[in-house]
């Protein structure tokens, strides 16, 4: 046998996996082993620290449920989720941002101009814009799938035990022949990610808050185009510079304008808005289509 | 606000933690963030791959119990545990190796020459040697805490529902005035780490077996000396070159000699052995003592 030591163990562990040479699985595994070992050597990790890391992961597992994914939260606060969003944004297209835990894939199809605020209190805002390809050609029939928190920072899906309908504040809309979309809703407020578990302890230990900047969630789909999963934020609101999950990008911030300053004659609206946000989405071709 | 992109996000996440500058916590956190982000960028992780990683961790959490620590197992098969053992071995001292999941800190104190095999079948072996400091001075009164599997590869603690006593095949012995220790036991057999969970799936996906080379576990303690946690393996046995958790080091392999070839007159033994293993432990001063 060859003797394993702190320098050759990395090759030994990589060699122990008899994966298909050059496969993606091998690449991911070898990279993981190299970084894990380099980190351990660079930091000179002690047994106590090693046990703390493993206990932390164990505690994350303990608190996790299908509804409460502590590992996704961990990924979020370490910027891993945001980085994956960034790396997978297609050139020229709208930047990607967090999907978050509250998406439902079967929101109701609603007509352009609809109101999804219902009886919720808060500022009523007209959200509108165009969906185009990267050459700015309008995309007709693109599906805008949106969901959001209300003006107290809560998603109706979180309040089902208080009688709220989890499909509230959600809609699927189709762009018209000019690629336009528009609807009214209530302006959402910031909220905190869950911080009653091990990730919350990590945030506290690192003197970090758990607040997310207020946002609207979107998934934009169009045949032949790469789906865009993103969030739209609002100018001059809290936590834009220190969103707890690094979801904010400059290009994703929409300007909120008083409705009185906007010509609303081109919109067929079910409800009169207090304010207006214009935001255009750009889609890139789907390489795999 | 500054715009976050795939290149400056690493600094942004590091800055988000307001830890004590220069503290160990900051060092560990910053290094983790850097390696996690570098890995993500180098691999160009997709959303599918990201979700697979998080689901894997979630599944590890699901199967974990206080008795079944899947994250420790994951650390073991990735060589993380072994590397921490290596980094924390004191210069000149016996190399460290896996603690494993079956240690109990209250094994019975037994006299030198005792037999801990009880009624278990298999080859009876005399294990003996000296405990010294790194200058080879014998250490008198060093406590040898040992535990092991039986000749079918099972720890009694795993067989409690079949009436086995979890304290079987365990003992604490004290070295004599010459630093000597000796006792008889049954020669253990190889066994597999648990592979019915997500880590087992990883091993199968990577065409790896789950077998550990047969070994005896030891914790050696002496006042003023750095505690040695290690394992002793046996020459010419299976899995020395491919132990599933990378616990084997050349320096930890003992030679098994037929008892007929050894002069046993200097040992006061409760039981006649079939074979003899000689292994000396070396302890380094405890820096923190």
From TrEMBL, chains A, B:
Belongs to the intradiol ring-cleavage dioxygenase family. PANTHER family: DIOXYGENASE, PUTATIVE (AFU_ORTHOLOGUE AFUA_2G02910)-RELATED (PTHR33711), INTRADIOL RING-CLEAVAGE DIOXYGENASES DOMAIN-CONTAINING PROTEIN-RELATED (PTHR33711:SF7). One of its GO terms (molecular function) is ferric iron binding. InterPro entries: Catechol_dOase_N, Intradiol_dOase_C, Intradiol_dOase_core, Intradiol_RC_Dioxygenase. This is Intradiol ring-cleavage dioxygenase. Its cofactor is Fe(3+). Residues 24-90 form the Catechol dioxygenase N-terminal domain. Keywords: Dioxygenase, Iron, Metal-binding, Oxidoreductase. GO terms for biological process: catechol-containing compound metabolic process. Residues 115-270 form the Intradiol ring-cleavage dioxygenases domain. Pfam families: Dioxygenase_C, Dioxygenase_N.
């Amino acid at each position: 046998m060859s003797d394993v030591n702190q320098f050759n163990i990395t090759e030994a562990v990589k060699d122990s996996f008899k994966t298909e040479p050059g496969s993606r699985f091998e690449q991911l595994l070898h990279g993981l082993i190299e970084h894990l070992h380099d980190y351990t050597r660079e930091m000179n990790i002690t047994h106590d620290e090693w046990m703390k890391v493993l206990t932390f992961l164990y505690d994350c597992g303990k608190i996790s449920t299908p509804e409460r994914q502590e590992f996704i939260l961990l990924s979020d606060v370490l910027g891993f989720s945001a980085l994956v969003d960034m790396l997978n944004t297609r050139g020229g297209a709208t930047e990607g941002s967090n999907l978050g835990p509250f998406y439902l894939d079967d929101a109701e199809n609603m007509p352009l101009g609809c109101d999804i605020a219902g009886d919720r209190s808060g500022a009523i805002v007209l959200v509108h814009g165009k969906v185009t390809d990267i050459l700015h050609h309008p995309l007709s029939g693109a599906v805008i799938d949106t969901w959001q928190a209300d003006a107290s920072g809560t998603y109706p899906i979180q309040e089902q035990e208080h009688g709220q309908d989890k499909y509230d504040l959600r809609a699927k809309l189709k762009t018209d022949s000019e690629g336009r979309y528009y609807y009214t809703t209530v302006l959402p407020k910031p909220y905190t990610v869950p911080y009653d578990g091990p990730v919350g302890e990590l945030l506290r230990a690192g003197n970090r808050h758990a607040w997310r900047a207020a946002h609207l969630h979107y998934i934009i789909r169009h045949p032949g185009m790469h789906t865009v999963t993103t969030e739209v934020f609002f100018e001059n609101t809290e936590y834009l510079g220190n969103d707890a999950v690094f979801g904010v990008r400059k290009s994703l911030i929409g300007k909120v304008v008083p409705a009185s300053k906007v010509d609303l004659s081109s919109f067929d609206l079910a409800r009169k808005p207090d304010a207006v946000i214009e935001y255009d989405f750009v889609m890139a071709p789907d390489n795999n289509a």
